[in-house]
């Protein structure tokens, strides 16, 4: 992802094939197949801040020719990059969410990601990603990432720009904004799609007591997190 500035991404899909050239701006994300050669360079004298995650998921196919790298779409992509900030955000009681999944890219090993913005004094729901681990990279603001591992006390990592948190697969967690400005976090999933299970969805099918017993945490903690989410939802509706 380009965090700030702009850069040119050049790709040689396969040895000897014609090179592709993309201009990436702040908020753009990209994915390059393992079989391709790629390199960045800045535009003239402009600097760029870039986050690169090296490594993919287990591929279903090894043939990157299954998609057309020249195919354009409504987001202005070339098959290798996607204009995430041009995508409408999904409103949440605590802020907003933008999700990009693997099918946005011409890469059989592409990952999925989410750009999360949490409003001041708000927190996301306690939730789980059952299909993958999560890397949370703080881009702007200050806050915390609280993990709720089964059987042990919750663990909190304080976030500031450049701080990275890691949540194992199927472990509950939530993000909280402790600052005065928006907390912006890029989450990367080693999966081709985004899927989460929120505490409220779990509560709809089970009781606070059974969830607390399953996670080996205090009943009061689950009740407090549930109440916090409901309160934010009511405030959002009034606004």
TrEMBL record:
It comes from the Bacteria. The keyword Nucleotide-binding does not apply. Keywords: Metal-binding. SMART domains: Cupin_1. Residues 82-223 form the Cupin type-1 domain. This is Cupin type-1 domain-containing protein. It comes from Asaia krungthepensis NRIC 0535.
